[in-house]
Specification:
Length: about 240
């Protein structure tokens, strides 16, 4: 009878998971290294999930659609209510991508996590290290400027198409790449999650791209790939509008 319990338990867990529609981190067996901490970021356009390829309108009422929205988050620090550090994870990086909506493990800890601090972009040392030797996600060639260590990584990428000829159909490419050390930002969020005696915890974040793109006339500046006031603004808005749910 004892041997028969395992298949029945597995079947029960499978049926339970099939009934869930929300985003859950994987189930991990608890051990002495602490709870696994996962982070999920829902990228939205206003109150709706952002859909790549869907037509939206900018501040000038120009039709546009996103093809790529990606950003790096890294070096998370988990802090308790007494402002003591529970876990400092300088090597942890996540590449959030509107095309996958994935859940990413950022580290492990025990205790009550009151807030989290994190970098947006790639810190100076990692930004100028050899990307061919980097671990995922920092080995993503699409997020690096030509594998040139002097240029480093693209921190925040927004790409798509906009309607240049006025027919209401986006057909012309636009590109915004935020990069270089001065564009690095530090964000934080109050999360209030108890990781004292559990297998895993999930930090649920939200980024509203409508707020990030608010007021922009894409046709006026369709390509910005060097640091300037627009990339400063986009990074400031990434910092301001990446919030905990």
């Amino acid at each position: 009878m004892k041997r028969d319990a395992y298949p029945l338990l597995g079947l029960a867990m499978l049926l339970l998971s099939a009934c869930r529609t929300d985003v859950l981190p994987p189930v991990v067996v608890q051990d002495d290294d602490g709870a696994h901490v996962f982070m999920h970021t829902e990228i939205q356009q206003g109150n709706q999930s952002l859909s790549l390829g869907t037509t939206y309108h900018d501040a000038a009422n120009t039709a546009f659609r996103y093809t790529t929205v990606k950003f790096f988050l890294g070096r998370p620090t988990l802090i308790d209510a007494a402002e003591d550090t529970l876990a400092d994870l300088p090597g942890a990086y996540v590449l959030f991508d509107a095309s996958d909506g994935g859940v990413h493990e950022i580290g492990r800890t025990r205790g009550y996590v009151h807030r989290i601090k994190f970098g947006l972009g790639v810190d100076h040392d990692a930004n100028h290290a050899d990307p061919t030797l980097a671990m995922p996600p920092l080995n993503d060639a699409s997020m690096h400027w030509g594998w040139n260590t002097a240029q480093g990584y693209k921190f925040f990428v927004i790409e798509g198409q906009y309607d240049q000829d006025g027919d209401g159909m986006p057909e012309t490419s636009f590109t915004y790449h935020c990069a270089t050390d001065p564009e690095y930002r530090v964000g934080e969020a109050v999360v209030d999650i108890d990781a004292s005696d559990v297998n895993n915890v999930n930090i649920q974040m939200r980024l509203d791209m409508q707020a990030v793109m608010n007021g922009l006339d894409i046709a006026a500046r369709p390509v910005v790939v060097a640091p300037d006031t627009l990339t400063d603004l986009l990074m400031d808005r990434l910092q301001a509008h990446l919030i905990h749910l």
